[in-house]
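Reference record
================
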Amino acid sequence: SRHWMALIRQVLVAGLLNKDIETYGVLRMSKAGEKFLESPTKFMMTEDHTYDEESDDGIITNAKSGGASADEKLVKLLKDLRKRNAKKLGVPPFVIFQDPSLEDMALKYPIDINELSNVHGVGESKAKKYGKDFVELIASYVEENDIIRPDDLVVKSTGTNSAIKLYIIQNVDRKLPLDDIASSKGISMDDFIKEMEAIVFSGTKLNIDYWLNDILDEDQQEEIHDYFMESETDKISEALEEFDGDYEEEELRLYRIKFISEVAN
């Protein structure tokens, strides 16, 4: 499988496939790819590296990359950097960048703040706030390893998704009931929360205190806040296990939105 992951990554770099940012995780055939199918030609493929178990320790290999494989060695370097910076700032590592963002960096190799802002789950404000050390590390890594960067993957998100996000930001700012905002767009509460998560994970603040204060009292909010502040991960599955039925999944996801907005953004 490592061989095929390496091949897919290099086909992306060659421009035979394109990554669809609007439908994250989807690869589409490019015009160059169609021409290649019509008239196949040979091209050289670099053999993928195999890192030892010590080097691979803790590396996430199931990146959300629609079949393309992130550079595992770079992922580990980025995680180490995130851990160091989080310790300096006194925040959990996931507050800086989440794992899917690091994995996307290790696929796109952004070397400046503008490129970093187009990485999955980052955005302009988060890139400016936390990105300097990361793009410097990636730039050095690219130069040292003679990596050809897939510049065609850096695409800004536009269209329907952006319109929905703007609608949510405006109406949350007006303190409209969250279920009303969701129903007005014809989406489920689960999908609505996913949209809000995408907004705050990319660095934009959302103040949903007016809603949280009705479903969680002060002591409950303090308890959840302390959990996320001390946790190495923001995974809701682990929070549910920790609280053992004290809170619903929706409550924890909504509070996480508040936490990321206040601590990370």
Remarks:
- Residues 49-67, 152-158 have pLDDT under 50 and may be disordered.
